[in-house]
Specification:
Blueprint lengths: L22 H14 L20 H5 L5 E5 L5 H9 L4 E6 L2 H14 L4 E5 L2 H8 L5 E7 L19 H8 E11 L2 H12 L4 E3 L16 H8 L5 E7 L4
Parallel strand pairs: 1-2, 1-4, 2-3, 4-5
Antiparallel strand pairs: 5-7, 6-7
Helix pairs in contact: 1-4, 3-4, 5-6
């Protein structure tokens, strides 16, 4: 029998923070979690996913519909907006920061969005095992932590090998949408995905047009105010052999 793991095999792309939540956010976890928060069996850490855990989208959402997954959903602005505007589609927000998940649940509840779920988990584990293979029509990754110091770039989410993880979760022809305000990270994203045979560019020229479904957030405005250009990319999952 193999020895149990006591740590993750790969560095994670986040630092676990324990900032205090407001009273309303605390209530969101007690009152709204049963409706929105997926109860995920854990492995070696609180944000890990047990390798045998599997999401059943049809059972969870109560129907068969296209599934859109946002990685690092933050405060949930983009995914709550999308879920509210598109009730015939299903949405999953993946985030590790509880205050952001609480805000997402509160806003979804206020908007009456019942086609949204949230999961507190490390994104690569959600994509590589928790989601059924080919479950997602699109995966969104907007403004992931750039880990801009050279000694920290190994923590970036989009690095060599990430294509295998994202491609597994996407259906054939499904889209991987990305955006960042750090040019060197945008270049790394493009280099990694251009070289991945599981993906092909779904945009002409150097960069993709802004995705209409990506609402402007305070975070993005802050980057623009600092003079950083916003770079969008979109890749299509190639057909399985």
């Amino acid at each position: 029998m193999p020895e149990p793991r006591t740590f993750r095999d790969e560095p994670v792309s986040f630092v676990r923070r324990s900032g205090r939540m407001s009273e309303a956010q605390e209530r969101a976890f007690s009152d709204l979690a049963p409706r929105y928060l997926l109860d995920v069996p854990r492995d070696v850490a609180w944000t890990s996913v047990h390798p045998e855990a599997r999401l059943d989208p049809a059972a969870e959402y109560g129907r068969d519909a296209d599934l859109y997954v946002e990685i690092g959903s933050g405060q949930g602005h983009a995914i709550v907006s999308a879920a509210t505007a598109r009730p015939d589609d299903d949405f999953l927000a993946v985030e590790v920061f509880r205050a952001g998940l609480a805000r997402t649940m509160l806003d979804a509840d206020r908007a009456g969005a019942r086609n949204l779920r949230v999961v507190e988990a490390n994104a690569p584990e959600v994509l590589s095992s928790y989601l059924p293979e080919g479950a997602a029509r699109e995966v969104w990754i907007f403004f992931p932590d750039p880990w801009h110091k050279k000694r920290h770039t190994k923590r970036r989410l989009i690095r060599p090998g990430f294509g295998d993880v994202a491609a597994r979760a996407l259906r054939d022809g499904g889209l991987l949408r990305l955006a960042t305000d750090w040019e060197d990270y945008a270049l790394q994203m493009r280099e990694v995905l251009d070289a991945d045979p599981l993906f092909e560019r779904a945009f002409p020229g150097d960069w993709a047009e802004r995705f209409d479904g990506r609402v402007m957030t305070a975070f993005e405005r802050k980057g623009i105010a600092k003079g950083r250009d916003i770079r969008d990319l979109v890749y299509r999952r190639t057909a399985r052999a």
